[in-house]
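Data deposition worksheet. Section B asks for the primary sequence of the deposited chain exactly as it was used as input, without tags or linkers unless they were present during the calculation. Section C holds the resulting structure in C-alpha coordinate form. Section D is free text for depositor observations; keep each observation to a single sentence. Incomplete worksheets are returned to the depositor.
Section A, Depositor: J.P.
Section B:
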Amino acid sequence: MNAFKAYKACVPIAWSPNLYISLVRGIPGTRRLHRRTLEALRLRKCNRTVMRWNTPTVRGMLQQVKRLVAIETEEMYKARRQKDANHCALRPPLVISHLPAPAK
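Section C:
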Protein backbone atom coordinates (compact mmCIF):
# COMPACT_ATOMS: atom_id res chain seq x y z
CA MET A 1 0.00 0.00 0.00
CA ASN A 2 1.48 3.35 -1.00
CA ALA A 3 1.49 6.43 1.23
CA PHE A 4 -1.55 8.02 -0.41
CA LYS A 5 -3.74 4.94 0.13
CA ALA A 6 -2.55 4.73 3.74
CA TYR A 7 -3.44 8.41 4.17
CA LYS A 8 -6.93 7.89 2.76
CA ALA A 9 -7.44 4.71 4.81
CA CYS A 10 -6.89 6.55 8.10
CA VAL A 11 -9.76 9.02 7.57
CA PRO A 12 -11.88 8.80 10.72
CA ILE A 13 -15.56 7.95 10.67
CA ALA A 14 -16.27 10.46 13.46
CA TRP A 15 -18.85 13.09 12.61
CA SER A 16 -17.61 16.58 11.92
CA PRO A 17 -19.72 19.61 10.88
CA ASN A 18 -17.19 20.57 8.19
CA LEU A 19 -15.22 18.50 5.71
CA TYR A 20 -11.96 19.69 4.17
CA ILE A 21 -11.60 18.28 0.67
CA SER A 22 -8.31 18.35 -1.26
CA LEU A 23 -7.91 17.49 -4.91
CA VAL A 24 -4.93 15.15 -5.09
CA ARG A 25 -5.22 13.75 -8.63
CA GLY A 26 -5.38 15.67 -11.87
CA ILE A 27 -8.59 16.48 -13.71
CA PRO A 28 -7.44 15.74 -17.30
CA GLY A 29 -8.46 12.27 -18.43
CA THR A 30 -11.39 11.95 -16.02
CA ARG A 31 -15.01 11.40 -16.98
CA ARG A 32 -17.22 14.36 -17.73
CA LEU A 33 -19.46 13.50 -14.78
CA HIS A 34 -16.46 13.57 -12.44
CA ARG A 35 -15.26 16.88 -13.87
CA ARG A 36 -18.72 18.38 -13.35
CA THR A 37 -18.78 17.06 -9.77
CA LEU A 38 -15.37 18.61 -9.03
CA GLU A 39 -16.57 21.86 -10.56
CA ALA A 40 -19.62 21.79 -8.28
CA LEU A 41 -17.32 21.22 -5.29
CA ARG A 42 -15.21 24.19 -6.54
CA LEU A 43 -12.07 22.07 -6.84
CA ARG A 44 -10.18 23.41 -9.85
CA LYS A 45 -6.49 22.74 -9.25
CA CYS A 46 -4.45 19.97 -7.66
CA ASN A 47 -3.44 20.32 -4.00
CA ARG A 48 -6.15 22.90 -3.35
CA THR A 49 -8.40 22.47 -0.32
CA VAL A 50 -11.99 23.61 0.10
CA MET A 51 -14.27 23.46 3.12
CA ARG A 52 -17.78 22.09 2.69
CA TRP A 53 -20.55 21.28 5.12
CA ASN A 54 -20.97 17.64 6.00
CA THR A 55 -24.31 17.01 4.29
CA PRO A 56 -25.64 13.92 2.50
CA THR A 57 -25.45 15.77 -0.82
CA VAL A 58 -21.77 16.59 -0.43
CA ARG A 59 -21.00 13.09 0.82
CA GLY A 60 -22.68 11.64 -2.28
CA MET A 61 -20.59 13.88 -4.50
CA LEU A 62 -17.45 12.79 -2.67
CA GLN A 63 -18.43 9.15 -3.14
CA GLN A 64 -18.38 9.73 -6.91
CA VAL A 65 -14.90 11.25 -6.98
CA LYS A 66 -13.32 9.44 -4.02
CA ARG A 67 -10.30 8.34 -6.10
CA LEU A 68 -9.47 11.96 -6.95
CA VAL A 69 -9.79 13.62 -3.53
CA ALA A 70 -8.61 13.34 0.06
CA ILE A 71 -11.12 14.10 2.79
CA GLU A 72 -10.24 15.43 6.25
CA THR A 73 -12.26 16.40 9.28
CA GLU A 74 -11.73 19.77 10.92
CA GLU A 75 -9.39 18.35 13.58
CA MET A 76 -7.26 16.53 11.02
CA TYR A 77 -7.01 19.65 8.85
CA LYS A 78 -5.92 21.85 11.76
CA ALA A 79 -3.36 19.28 12.91
CA ARG A 80 -1.89 19.03 9.40
CA ARG A 81 -1.71 22.82 9.04
CA GLN A 82 0.02 23.10 12.43
CA LYS A 83 2.53 20.43 11.45
CA ASP A 84 3.28 22.25 8.19
CA ALA A 85 3.65 25.57 10.03
CA ASN A 86 6.09 24.01 12.51
CA HIS A 87 8.08 22.52 9.65
CA CYS A 88 8.42 25.91 7.95
CA ALA A 89 9.15 27.82 11.17
CA LEU A 90 12.23 30.01 11.31
CA ARG A 91 15.28 28.40 12.82
CA PRO A 92 18.16 30.18 14.60
CA PRO A 93 21.00 31.11 12.24
CA LEU A 94 23.99 28.84 11.90
CA VAL A 95 27.14 30.70 13.02
CA ILE A 96 30.36 29.61 11.37
CA SER A 97 33.67 31.00 12.60
CA HIS A 98 36.55 31.13 10.11
CA LEU A 99 39.10 32.07 12.75
CA PRO A 100 41.81 29.53 13.46
CA ALA A 101 41.28 27.30 16.47
CA PRO A 102 42.92 28.61 19.67
CA ALA A 103 46.30 27.03 20.52
CA LYS A 104 46.45 24.84 23.59
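Section D:
The mean pLDDT is 79.
The two ends are 58 Å apart (CA to CA).
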